[in-house]
Structure formats: C-alpha cells, structure tokens
Amino acid sequence: MSSEARNRPLLKSFRTATFVFSFLLLALPVRLRAQQSSDFDEYKLRLDTYWFYSNPGGSVQGSSDEVPVDFQKDLGFNGYSTFAVRADWKFTHKNHFYVALSLFNTSRETILDRTITFRGQTFEVGTSVRSDLHAFLVAPGYQYDIIRRKRGHLGIGVQVDLFDTSAKITGAAGEGGGVVSAKGSLLAPIPVAGPDYRIYLTNSPRVFLAGNVYGMYFFGYGNFVSTTDVLGVTLNKHISLSAGYQLGSRLVVNNSASANRIGLRLTQQGAIAGAEFSF
Prior knowledge:
By secondary structure, this protein is mainly beta. The protein has one domain (3-35, 46-211, 230-272): Lipocalin (Beta Barrel). The protein is built from 2 helices and 15 strands. The chain has helices spanning 3-27, 30-33, and strands at residues 45-54, 57-61, 69-70, 80-90, 95-111, 116-118, 121-123, 128-149, 152-172, 179-200, 206-217, 222-234, 239-253, 263-267, 270-278. The strands form 2 sheets. Strands 1-4-5-8-9-10-11-12-13-15 form a 10-stranded antiparallel β-barrel. Strand 11 and strand 12 (222-234) form a beta hairpin. The radius of gyration is 21 Å and the shape is elongated.
C-alpha cells in the first residue's frame, strides 16, 4: 500500500474536524464570539485521563538489510487496553504549557507462517515465538489559542514526542539452534505541531466536541501523524466525561545502518474514553 493510501484516512479526519469546528464557530452569535469573560472552558489546571483500546499495526526492522517483521501478519498482535494522561497548565487566557504520557505494552505468542530475521537471529517458519512490544511516550508542549471565545477555542500546539520503544522476539533459532532472543530498542525525539479545538454545543448540560491533529515529516528520518476526536459532557465545574476514537497515530522511523538504529512503523488506533478534572 502506498504512503498516499495510508495517509488518506488521517487526511480525511483532519478535513472533517476542521470543517466541523469552522462551521460551528461561524454559527455562533456575534455577541457570544465577542465575549471574553465567563468562558465555558475556564480553568488554570486541567488533568485528562483516558482509557484507550489500541489496535497496533505496522512493522519493526532490526537492520537495514533485513525484511521488516509485521506486527499483525507475522507476530499476531491484536487489540489491548492501555491508558494516557495529559496535564495542562493554562497560565494566561490563551497560553498553555502541557505534558502528555502514554504507555503501550503488549505481548503475543504465535506460530510463524514464514521465516523471519530480527537483529541477526533467524526464526524458521512453524516456530512458536513470543513477541513483546513496549512503547512509552512523553510529550511536553506549548499551545497558543488563536481564537478563544465563551463557547470554545482553536489553538496551535507545538510539542516534542519522546518515544522510548523496544521490541523482543523469543523462540527457536535456525535449524536446531535452541531457544534464543532478539531485542532492539529505539529512543526517538519527534517534534510535531498542529491544531487543537473545543466547541461547546449546548448550555446545560454543556456538551462539547474536542480534538486535535499533530504531525511532522522528517524526510529520510521518518514522520509522525495523529488525530483524536471526542464528544464530551461537563458534569460540574470540575469534572467532565468524554468518549471518542483515535483515528490514527502513526510513527515511522526509518532504519539507519550507520546509527545502528532499528526501523519502526507503529500505528495505534481505537476507541477512547476518559474523565477530565479542571481547577
């Protein structure tokens, strides 16, 4: 599948989110758009906690001369539950500092349908292998709200995604070679940027749409793109609940023989639900 075809769902979700926000913002009465006080979204500190049912996809490549190992077709990875946390400090009316944390840990045992090689170790077709994938993300960032009105905002965020990822495969090596393990790791700092929005649809209860799109392309090094959209409701001044879908989170880090870096294509997508605490 071409890179254009892989990116089509993400581009479609970006266009949809942008259209929805623009339409709703333009539909607000002028008197509300001019009002700066008593925002529905007024806070100084906010903590977002999310449950995420992730469906991992992609591949890992131990060296530049190895055939990539597919997480689903070769290793049989399927959906699993994980979590994400985001702390946001809005230190002025339109300026934010924030940090986001995500943890992706999954293991799978399967019988290989083809012979694979990872980090110099060969695992023959028909071998029973155990595969472990661990990915930890820390993302500090800054956001400026270009538009902030009583019923919502449209901002631009810039953050650095620090991915600490490792992959391990354990099984029988070669012809009667006994049990061996092959492991590779990657620490990749990825600066990304993109829009973030929230729009309140009703007064009471306060129902809102919120989402973001982040991405960056790094030519020969790799790229990253993600988009998340949720529908939420404010229960009171301090607590909101939301649910939605992470339509795409795709990290690509190309293999580099000179840097002894593993190649990684990791896609996470699935349903999300969470609680938000504002102070």
